[in-house]
Amino acid sequence: MAEKGKMTVSEAGQKGGRTTRERYGHEFYEEIGEKGGTTVREKYGTPFYEEIGHKGGQKVKKLIEEGKKAIG
Question: Rounded to whole angstroms, how far apart are CA atoms 34 and 25?
Fold first, then answer.
């Protein structure tokens, strides 16, 4: 941690997350995640998930190829 009484943005976020978890429990995060997922699906439709899944897969493929080149 930084100087006494000061914290980074990351540390503040972690502290807030811990406090929320202690106050509302794990189920709270499941509920807001479900609501968020439903909202995104309604707004963008299922093709959106296909698109971001494809982009993520391409990124992983690229990283694997770069790792193989670096090794040998």
Answer: 15
- The tokens of 24 are what? 């509302």
Q: 24-49: b or e for each residue (b if 16 or more CB lie within 10 Å)?
A: eeeeeeeeeeeeeeeeeeeeeeeeee
User: Contact at 8 Å (CB) between 52 and 44?
Assistant: no
Cβ–Cβ under 8 Å, residues 28 and 20: yes
> pTM for the whole thing?
0.47
CB proximity list for 2: less than 8 A, separation 6 or greater? 8, 11
Q: What is the mean pLDDT of residues 20-27?
A: 92
